[in-house]
Amino acid sequence: MDVTTVDGQLRITFDRPESMNAFTPEAAQELASAVEGANVEDHDAVMLTGEGEAFSAGGDIQSMAEREETPREAYDRVHETLGRVVEAMLECRVPIVAKVNGDAVGAGLAITALSDFAYATEDATFSCAFVHVGLIPDTGGSFLLPRLVGLRAAKRLAFTGEFFEAAEAADLGLLNGAVPPEELDERVDDLLATLADRPTETIGLAKQTIHDNLGRQWPDAIDHEIMLQVQAYGTDAHEEGVAAFLDDRDPEFE
Known about the structure:
Layout: E1 2-6, E2 9-14, H1 25-36, E3 45-50, E4 54-56, H2 61-65, H3 71-80, H4 82-91, E5 96-100, E6 103-105, H5 107-114, E7 117-121, E8 125-127, H6 141-149, H7 151-160, E9 163-165, H8 166-172, E10 177-179, H9 184-196, H10 200-212, H11 218-233, H12 236-246
Parallel strand pairs: 2-3, 3-5, 4-6, 5-7, 6-8, 7-10
Antiparallel strand pairs: 1-2, 8-9
């Protein structure tokens, strides 16, 4: 996995093009470690993409065929690899942008769903393909897909494993947009530039609030929202935003 920081962006590239960037347990741990390294002091955004023609083909089938493990060993392995990826991406305070340069299948689709933003080339295809190898959606898929695409659509994707095009992925809410291949870089770069102009600390608090409140009843959710808003009141970003408004100028966030 190639991990670099460029202009305040933590860029993570899945670099196993010979396997369509399929995920081994080692690759999942590398991804989790990279995302865990993102922080609001050094980064405006995390950008995920794939090398070659695919974003990610999901789990590495060859490594699945070679496994010999007990149920407890399987639980520990998944918890420490794909489970760690889910935790890292949902708890990351820095916004995560998926630049889906090609097909996103299985865990590749789930990682697209875990990202805060996702744009794909319009010739990319998607599949919640776990059922084809006798598995259920993982990498957060069972949790996030119903929230993104709705219950009936999530069941259709999970039960059939059918392949669908980027335009439908955008219509379902899995993507922010599907664009011609030659426009993908520009679309993502425009978004990254916008995020760089925003206060990352504030974005992190907003992301935490939204994710924390997914499972709460509304009274607890509103109370939690208020507590984090109080945190936001005390930030330099809030002070600068108010001062810029009163001075009739654009804010200069860190």
